[in-house]
Amino acid sequence: MSNPTLLILPGDGIGPEVMTEVRRIIDWFGDKRGLKFDVAEDLVGGAAYDAHGTPLTDKTMAHAQSVDAVLLGAVGGPKYDDLDFSVKPERGLLRLRKEMDLYANLRPAQCFDALADFSSLKRDIVAGLDIMIVRELTSGIYFGEPRGIQADNEGGRVGVNTQRYTTNEIRRVARSAFELARRRSNRLCSMEKANVMESGILWREEVQWVHDNEYPDVELTHMYADAGAMQLVRAPKQFDVIVTDNLFGDLLSDAAAMLTGSLGMLPSASLGAPAENGRPKALYEPVHGSAPDIAGQGKANPCACILSFAMALRYSFDQGTEADRLEAAVESVLRDGVRTADLMQAGDRDPASTTQVGDAVLKAL
Amino acid sequence: MSNPTLLILPGDGIGPEVMTEVRRIIDWFGDKRGLKFDVAEDLVGGAAYDAHGTPLTDKTMAHAQSVDAVLLGAVGGPKYDDLDFSVKPERGLLRLRKEMDLYANLRPAQCFDALADFSSLKRDIVAGLDIMIVRELTSGIYFGEPRGIQADNEGGRVGVNTQRYTTNEIRRVARSAFELARRRSNRLCSMEKANVMESGILWREEVQWVHDNEYPDVELTHMYADAGAMQLVRAPKQFDVIVTDNLFGDLLSDAAAMLTGSLGMLPSASLGAPAENGRPKALYEPVHGSAPDIAGQGKANPCACILSFAMALRYSFDQGTEADRLEAAVESVLRDGVRTADLMQAGDRDPASTTQVGDAVLKAL
Ligand SMILES: CC(C)[C@H](C(=O)O)[C@@H](O)C(=O)O
Ligand SMILES: CC(C)[C@H](C(=O)O)[C@@H](O)C(=O)O
Q: Site (Important for catalysis): which residue positions (chains A, B) (predicted)?
């Protein structure tokens, strides 16, 4: 049987340097655990724009469609701020999500015990925090038509975007969330603004439908997204799995990530429909951005990207035990204090470099 | 000269009981400070629905248009959850905002020193926090057409809402924000998702235009709304005035409010265009909701609603000194420990009732 295939898209900013560490980890699993992958690498985002004038070439897009999993670093940076909307680095990422139909974005917000003091929240509010936000990723206002900027009839302009959700789009992401809830503590909270948006009413009704007809055993609650933002700040541990739309998910998952105090630790998975071979289309990426301010200096924390590969082991390759092994290795490195600057406090010893953290994870493995 | 006019709309849940205390304060200003108001009272939200089958009658709407300021308590409650969208309590509030053209929603997020320990955030992160969020309130996805739920062509349904902003809508709320920034620390941060939404690009460009042409002296920055949500959690004191659209403003201002740890303390003002007589159309309301779980029990904290009246003194009646006086009275009551249950910690003495807090504020005045 041929090896499973990976496409690596390091992207911009710190993307390439954190991905270098991930490749070493991938090699380790091939050498030591007999988990060999066929790995290819290509460009996305600003890096692709610089080389080809587009943030994602058709060739790379086709390649992404053909592999078992894509690993992405990060896209964007001030260098590209003035580019036209249609070729901004972000469009490359959005095209991957849309054309691969990766509708379920899994964003764990987990507070590592060794890092709880980095949170801006009090220790007892966040210690042990373990939330999974399931964000719809291929529809809603990110993709709805009509959209654009036009002249208005007052001599100015009008900017339009459309939030549009269908029954099917809502039900399929709800199913992903219910499945996860079943494997966790069997509780799901769905968030929208059904009090002001009809698309929110449909969202609420369809999630309820999936519950009543397919997952009546899971405890389902509904919350307005503004109240959700509040409750995430006030008492995040009340939540287990949260399901929400593309735009609310963008804000809420970032707020939730920040609660943990260690953005540099948080991975994400974007998954398509369950596949017969057990390998849904999938893209894995860290939650952090391209951090242009520290790019190229060996300061970036590779953990989020390494943990994204752990998610790939779990969700694409059914290697839960190996994923556990990798996650445990990262945690032990943290505990030992081998940390990049983002995880150091005044008075701590010198921060480790990106490579030193990679070394330490390999050693712990 | 005739007295300035106030329309009081207590609404639902704890609205009526907190408004009772505000009326006593209003009377005090009439008796002791010669600031007499002509006060009328009417129904909104679920209360109006129960009486008239609509969350806001045309008569009340017309009355609101004719007064100098509207004070609103809160709307909504589980009793009304199954009502049709068009008559939900919230529609009453949204109609007031829209028809009075109250486009600038001022939401201060201020952390009272005596209450900093109630925050879920560490004391040093929030002590002294004083942000003003200016939220656009009459446009965007709350009001854009087309909207609604229809059959789709897959045998299901499709829910649609439209985000639509014009040059004028953006510029006028930007001006409100720049004006406030000038009276504060001269810094404004504008938030949108210009990386994924064209309406966000227009927002950014028009805010920049107002800056360059009318307020070049104010320091303007732009931030993506998801990063904004993160930064509010991480280091809120970096912000002074924030301007953002209706939907982002809903989530971000609620998150910011929760940072302070004392939702029961936070007022808001919703203002229309500057008027020749110095009295823009205006509606004042607490940030908290109708809290149906404690309604009618004398437990509700009246401070947010009282402070909303202080905002009315400041923004509608040019009585800055009297507003300061009222705010100082509320703060001194807090410091003295006369507090409702939401501001008590385990081991504190018995909580004060809504009326007792009202009494104490009157005494402090
Ligand atoms: C980079 C950007 C397009 C993206 C988004 O808005 O979805 C990012 O913020 C994210 O959350 O993955
Ligand atoms: C009650 C509701 C319609 C309202 C809103 O979404 O604007 C509330 O959440 C607010 O922020 O004032």
A: 142, 193
- Looking at the structure, do residues B96 and B156 belong to the same domain, yes or no? no
- Let me know whether B318 and B343 are in one domain: yes
Here the CATH number for the domain that contains residue A10 is 3.40.718.10
| Total domains, chain B | 2
Q: Which of A42, A245, A250, A342 is catalytic?
A: A250
Q: Which of A12, A80, A90 to mutate to test the pocket of ligand 1 (most atoms within 8 A of CB)?
A: A90
Same domain? B255 vs B118: yes
Q: A288-333, pLDDT tens digit by residue? A: 999 999 999 999 999 999 999 999 999 999 999 999 999 999 999 9
Same domain membership, residue B199 and residue B343? no
Residues 6+ apart with CB under 8 A from B166: A152, A154, A156, A157, A158, A159, B139
Q: What secondary structure letter does DSSP report for A3? A: P
pTM: 0.96
Q: What would the DSSP string read from start to end of B46-77?
A: HHHHHHHSSSS-HHHHHHHHHSSEEEEEE---
Q: Is it the case that residue B159 has pLDDT exceeding 90?
A: yes
pLDDT above 90 for A163: yes
Residue B351, pLDDT score: 93
Answer for the pair A182, A189: CB distance below 8 angstroms, yes or no: no
Gap between the Cα atoms of A97 and A57, Å rounded: 14
Distance CA B234, CA B229 (A): 9
Co-location of A259 and A280 in the same domain: no
Last residue of a domain, one of A264, A297, A328: A264
b/e B88-104 (16+ beta carbons within 10 angstroms → b): bbbbbbbbbbbebbbbb
Residues A74 and A210 in one domain: no
Residue A154's pLDDT is 87
What residue type is A328 in one-letter code?
A
H/E/C letters for each residue in B308-362? HHHHHHHHCCCCHHHHHHHHHHHHHHHHCCCCCHHHCCCCCCCCCCHHHHHHHHH
- Do B197 and B301 belong to one domain? no
Q: What would the mean pLDDT of A5-16 be, rounded to a whole number?
A: 98
CA distance B181 to B131: 10
User: Does the pLDDT at position A275 exceed 90?
Assistant: no
Give the C-alpha distances (Å, rounded to integers) separating A309 from A26, A110, A315, A327, B271. Answer: 8, 16, 10, 10, 50
Is the CB of A166 less than 8 angstroms away from the CB of B148? no
Out of A248, A264, A280, pick the residue that ends a domain.
Answer: A264
Give me the pLDDT at residue B252, please.
98
Residues of chain A neighbouring B196 (CB-CB closer than 8 A): 90, 94, 142
Instruction: Specify the pLDDT at position A349.
Output: 78
The pLDDT, as a whole number, for residue A365 is: 95
**Residue in A85, A199, A259 closest to B198 by CB:** A85
Closest residue by Cα to atom 2, ligand 2, is B90
**What is the per-residue pLDDT across B242-259, written as a single tens digit (0 to 9) for each?**
999 999 999 999 999 999
Contact A186, B149 (CB under 8 A): no
B168 contacts on A by Cβ (under 8 Å): 154, 156
Do residues B147 and B292 share a domain?
no
Range of the domain at A3: 1-103+272-365
